[in-house]
Design a protein that fits this description.
The structure is a single chain. This protein is of the alpha+beta class. The protein has 2 domains: 1-94, Winged helix-like DNA-binding domain superfamily/Winged helix DNA-binding domain (Arc Repressor Mutant, subunit A, Orthogonal Bundle), CATH 1.10.10; 99-162, 2-Layer Sandwich (Dna Ligase, domain 1). The chain has 7 helices and 6 strands, in the order H-H-E-H-H-E-E-E-E-H-E-H-H. A 3-stranded antiparallel beta sheet has the order 1-3-2. The relative contact order is 0.12.
């Protein structure tokens, strides 16, 4: 993990904390840095493990409280994953662009990020017909990815024979 606050995403997050009158603690910095360094989706346990490696004095419970407060402040986004742990990412990091939703393959458990505008027609219809406003970034949509679908096809179907 980088030991500086030099990343634009972490600097922006720290500035937001200060603007909101919140304390910038070692735990919050470490959590933000771990999220910024992550190349994938991390659950709280993964974040706590990485924070412990970088800042051994930060207690796991403090990491969990930091994640909760950072999410409540809108600095960290979290997504509920059916049958699994909630995942987190920086709301404004280059690796996690704003306005994206998550898909998860029910077979291999891989995640896919999609732009929320792909769900705009569904969002409009839900609002018009049910008065329901969709929070597409808040939960993962389940399905089966192309690789798993292809692996599940009978051999004759793949070869074009019946």
């Amino acid at each position: 993990m980088r030991q500086t606050d030099g990343s634009p995403a972490v600097s922006e997050a720290l500035d937001l904390l200060r603007q909101k009158g919140e304390r910038v603690t070692a735990a919050r910095k470490a959590v933000l840095q771990v999220l910024d360094d992550a190349s994938g989706h991390l659950c709280a346990e993964d974040i706590a493990t990485r924070v412990d490696e970088a800042e051994p004095g930060v207690h796991r419970a403090t990491v969990y409280r930091s994640l909760q407060s950072l999410a409540e402040l809108g600095i960290v986004a979290h997504t509920h994953v059916p049958g699994s742990a909630t995942i987190y990412h920086l709301r404004h990091s280059p690796g996690a662009p704003t306005g994206h939703a998550h898909l998860q393959c029910s077979t291999c458990q891989r995640f896919f990020d999609i732009p929320t505008d792909w769900l705009a027609p569904l969002d409009r219809r839900l609002r018009e017909e049910l008065g329901f406003e969709l929070e597409a970034q808040h939960a993962a949509l389940l399905g089966t990815c192309a690789d798993c679908r292809a692996a599940d096809r009978p051999r004759a179907d793949i070869d074009g024979r019946t």
